[in-house]
Amino acid sequence: MAKTQDFTKTMQDMMASFPVDASAFQDAFKTSAAMTEKLAKVALEAAEKSTEISSKWAKDTFAKVGDLSKAKAEPTDYTKAVTDFASQAAEMATENLAAFAEVAKKVQMETVELMLAAGKDLSEETTAAVKKATADVTTAAKKAAAAAK
Fold this sequence. Notes:
Residues 23-115 form the Phasin domain. This protein has helices at 8-17, 22-68, 75-148. The protein is mostly helical and 149 residues long.
């Protein structure tokens, strides 16, 4: 019977002729992890600031409701209290929504800066990796050509 040829040794020799630099993958992973850490920091800071704004808004509103709920001597005082509360609530809403907008703007700016920096770093790393891979392949090809002679 015909015996099937074992290509294991041939494949091992071929793979050894074209070495893969694992450091490129490690560097890419490290860069990705650093980017994730920076983005998480931006997101956590934004969440913290948003929570502070929401908490302050709620406390201020509760204080105003406390003033609104106090007993009044005259019926017209209730009308004035409700009008004052509505006015103050609208003012607080405007201030707090502006504060949320500032948080969003800051997150957007920091994210764009991180993405631009990451793009620059990635471009530099890719260029270096391609140059190194080209040199490695050229060297391996020269060795293979010399061995074939």
